[in-house]
Automatic annotation (TrEMBL):
Organism domain of life: Eukaryota
Transmembrane segment boundaries: 40-65, 72-99, 105-127, 148-172, 192-211, 243-262, 274-296
Record-annotated G-protein coupled receptors family 1 profile domain positions: 54-294
Taxonomic source organism: Chelydra serpentina (Snapping turtle)
Protein name: G protein-coupled receptor 6
Protein family per UniProt: Belongs to the G-protein coupled receptor 1 family.
Subcellular location: Cell membrane
Pfam families reported for this sequence: 7tm_1 (PF00001)
GO molecular function: G protein-coupled receptor activity
Length: 327
């Protein structure tokens, strides 16, 4: 007898004891488990709680503030909603794994988390596209065409996320074929490979767009400096700050998700579950960092927070309105 971890629907492992041939396997069992709480699951549950609280504040601010209805804030709201659902999913996953043992609930949980995290990553891509459009088509950005484009991106984002989340629930799972299981049971290897390939595609597109955004930012800053007939130190500082911000955004996203995405492709069911935990946890942290990068740094959201929570906003405090092109 040896201790091994079992991954529920999302990739979140659950500790239990099972007989094996010397290899640690990640498997969901419908039998009553030995009641021992895995510390990794506790950490994931705590992470889910923090994620849910952070993003619930952002959703509340955007929902209750009429001024935050521009395309940029609609996309930020979509991201916060997806991360909020992901956090709730991590909490429910912990509760269901240690309270209710059911294959049906496992499939629903995995579908919910797959849909939530897919919507989160897709919303990040939509925000990147929006930032690029705000720079590339600056003169026509605030047109009805842009609003229609944003709405279409949201429909595609949530439509694709819902479809991917329904796949394991509708039958694309390995509950009846253990040999086809991935490191995230009950997802099959082919299903997890599809999700990983989709992430790599999104990451490449985001990287390409942010490189183009960086070039546009540098070119615009250089043109402004030339119009002023000199290249001042402030020009260098502003350009460096913009490039650094872009590097932080794409670097944080890559560092959070790439390890788990790569391990989903190269990992095997017989590998120790600690590898899955160690790569999954940073991926969940991305949903914890997103509201800090995309929401709380925005001055209009900061002002709305003063109004919503303090009711003591002073008009003399200066807040500069920002556009998606502000990086």
């Amino acid at each position: 007898m040896n201790e091994s971890g079992a991954l529920n629907g999302t990739g979140v492992p659950v500790a239990r004891i099972q007989a094996s041939d010397g290899n640690s396997s990640l498997e969901l069992s419908s039998q009553l488990p030995v009641f021992a709480i895995n510390p990794w699951d506790v950490v994931l549950c705590i992470s889910g709680t923090i994620i849910a609280c952070e993003n619930a504040i952002v959703v509340a601010i955007i929902f209750y503030t009429p001024n935050l209805r521009t395309p940029m804030f609609v996309l930020i709201g979509s991201l916060a909603t997806a991360d909020l659902l992901a956090g709730v999913g991590l909490i429910l996953n912990f509760v269901f794994q240690y309270v209710i043992q059911s294959e049906t609930i496992s499939l629903i949980t995995v579908g919910f988390l797959v849909a939530s995290f897919t919507a989160s990553v897709s919303s990040l891509l939509a925000i990147t596209v929006d930032r690029y459009l705000s720079l590339y088509n600056a003169l026509t950005y605030y047109s009805e065409k842009t609003v229609l484009c944003i709405h279409m991106m949201l429909i595609v984002t949530w439509g694709v996320s819902l479809c991917l989340g329904l796949l394991p629930v509708l039958g694309w799972n390995c509950l009846d074929d253990y040999s086809s299981c991935s490191i995230v049971r009950p997802l099959t290897k082919s299903n997890l490979t599809l999700l990983s390939a989709s992430f790599f595609l999104v990451f490449i597109i985001m990287l390409h767009l942010y490189i183009k955004i960086c070039k546009i930012v540098c070119r615009h800053a250089h043109q402004i400096a030339l119009q002023q007939h000199f290249l001042s130190a402030s020009h260098y500082v502003a350009t460096k700050k913009g490039v650094s911000t872009l590097a932080i955004i794409i670097g944080t996203f890559g560092a959070s998700w790439l390890p788990f995405a790569i391990y989903c492709v190269v990992g095997d069911l017989d590998y120790p579950s600690v590898y899955t935990y160690a790569t999954l946890l940073p991926a969940t942290y991305n949903s914890m960092i997103n509201p800090i990068i995309y929401a709380y740094r925005n001055q209009e959201i900061q002002r709305a927070m003063w109004v919503l929570f303090c009711g003591c906003f002073q008009s003399k405090v200066s807040f500069r309105s920002r556009s998606p092109s502000d990086v």
